[in-house]
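Assess this one:

_____
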Amino acid sequence: MKTVIINGANGYVASNFICNLLKQDYKVIALVRANKQDPEDRMNDALANINEGIEIDLSNLKVYNYALLEENFAMHENILSGIFSGNVDYFHFAASLKYDKNSVDEIFSTNIEGVKNSISVFLKFASKKSRFFYIGTAYSCGKHNDVFEERFYRNATISSFRNYYECSFP
């Protein structure tokens, strides 16, 4: 059974991807950061939301708490060695989807330093036949019935990056 590791796993695009992998009987390792809610609960909630409450088989899903910007994701090396054992496919989905000027440091830290750290962890723990996939998700307005207006920054032309999220991808 193929193992797929996914960071930023509870996000919209990643959780839809995970749902499809689980339906195809892949073994999925989801890396989810804790906040006010337990990582496993966050992952389960994300899967329940996209499936509109229809249960899916979670027996091939293992959820780990991680910190994208910390060395070794703030996880013990033995755990990471186990997670990355064998030939795995590793998908980097994690991103900050904020736009505003007040969040510039967070946006760049997550979207640039997070990718660098993700690659570093992969190179340190994955086998030579494992594969790394970078998923650069585009922002969206979600379910919204009215017109969604993107605000362009006054100091940028239409041919330039229009917000801090856009210019934060490597």
Summary: The longest strand covers residues 27-32. The chain has a mean pLDDT of 86. Strands lie at 3-7, 27-32, 61-65, 88-92, 131-134. Residues 104-125 form the longest helix (22 residues).
